[in-house]
Amino acid sequence: MIKTGRRQKADKPNPIDVHVGARVRLRRTLLGMSQEKLGDAIGLTFQQVQKYERGANRIGASRLYDLSRVLDVPVSYFFEELGEGAPPNGMSEPTAEPYQANPMMKRETLELVRAYLRITDPQIKRRLFELAKALAAFPNGKSGD
């Protein structure tokens, strides 16, 4: 039997679909856009956007083009950082580590950056930056107390 890259319902999502969905979620979150607002902009329900972002549903070419316009990025954005080891046709597992391991993909990181950027006083911004660096210098992030 020839493997086509398609999956049965019980199979895990294709790693490339997961990566593309994660890039959609990252850009949407960076723009401060809700799943509902994105769905409205491209004629989908927020549930369908959720499925795309999880990689549960594959995003077709025309839909990817619509997403790139609404999210104001080139289509190639969705494939950035995919890794050299990932085959373009999804025939086998990519050799690169899953993109979700990237800490920039975490909501906590995005919220922290957004909060930092809302600070208007440059002295407070600098102090917070120095505090974060000092805390990160502790082994395992612990003060040892």
Notes on the structure:
Helices cover 48% and strands 0% of the residues. The chain is mainly α. The protein folds into two domains: 10-99, 434 Repressor (Amino-terminal Domain); 106-145, no CATH class. The relative contact order is 0.13. Mean pLDDT is 80; it is low at 86-101.
Radius of gyration: 19 Å
Average pLDDT confidence is 80
Number of strands: 0
CATH superfamily of the largest domain: lambda repressor-like DNA-binding domains
CATH class of the largest domain: Mainly Alpha
Number of domains: 2
Order of helices and strands: HHHHHH
Q: What gross morphology would you assign?
A: elongated
The amount of beta strand, in percent, is under 5%
